[in-house]
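Slide 14.
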Amino acid sequence: MKFANLIVHDVTLTAHLLKTVNSAMFSPSQPIYSIPEAVTMIGGSRLQALVMSAWAFFFIDEQTCPEFSPAAEWSHAWEVAKVTQQLAKEQKLPKTVSGGGFYRWVAARHWQDSAGSQ
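Slide 15: predicted structure.
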């Protein structure tokens, strides 16, 4: 695992990765503590997005871009995750429906509702 060996040397990226794979989006059955396991679980494209977003937050702050607030972005992401988790519980979705599966379920449900109202 070449990526895992690189990530383990970056404390901030390690924290972001572990926080992400242990979030409601992935809903692991047990907490993930291993970097190689986290890298495998998150997948290549999501790992790339995580690395790029971590660097974007490093370079952009309120002084360089007054319209952007990293704290507000993280707060918004947290609120979306909480609402998503609540929706999944209310709809009694299995824990295996997470991330992209949840979004596909929402889109399919919306499409069904829209088609039924026409």
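Speaker note: The chain has a mean pLDDT of 75.
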